[in-house]
From TrEMBL:
Transmembrane segments: none annotated. It comes from the Eukaryota. SUPFAM superfamilies: HSP20-like chaperones (SSF49764). Belongs to the small heat shock protein (HSP20) family. The lineage of its organism: Eukaryota, Viridiplantae, Streptophyta, Embryophyta, Tracheophyta. Residues 19-134 form the SHSP domain. Keywords: Stress response. It comes from Araucaria cunninghamii (Hoop pine). InterPro entries: A-crystallin/Hsp20_dom, HSP20-like_chaperone, Small_HSP. This is SHSP domain-containing protein.
Length: 135
């Protein structure tokens, strides 16, 4: 199927930065509904204290998870050690029609859900600048 780049909404909403250790999660699904943008992030093995969600200046949603660190005091030879090492950091540029002050996040059963409600009356970011003949 050919992809229409003229109408592709992801061209405007692409991740800005992506740093991840795939063994700890951080894979994101982003769904836009008529009322909100919903982000679902795999955070297996992490609890709410391991996760940070914030909206930065410029409408940047930043989701970060700190990997679980287990004490390795077991005697023996490890043949495979993949769990709980590292973390992830994801950033997304949000569209202008969202309510930045109403973002909610919940973690349950290894899944972080971030809901960014849409604003039905977005404020214009257009600001007229007076032009004078002298500075």
């Amino acid at each position: 199927m050919a992809r229409s780049y003229m109408k592709d909404p992801l061209l405007h909403f692409t991740p800005l930065r992506f740093v991840m250790d795939e063994s700890t999660g951080g894979q994101v699904d982003w769904l836009e509904t008529p009322n909100a943008h919903i982000f679902k992030v795999n955070v297996s093995g992490m609890n709410k204290d391991d996760i940070k969600v914030q909206v930065e200046d410029g409408g940047i949603l930043h989701i970060e998870g700190e990997g679980v660190k287990e004490e390795n005091k077991t005697e023996g030879v490890w043949h495979c050690l993949e769990r709980g090492r590292g973390g992830f950091s994801r950033q997304f540029s949000l569209p202008e029609n969202v309510k930045m002050d109403h973002v909610k996040a919940q973690v349950e059963n290894g899944l972080l859900t971030v809901v960014v409600p849409k604003d039905s009356n977005p404020k214009s970011r257009l600001r007229k600048i007076h032009v004078s003949s002298k500075l």
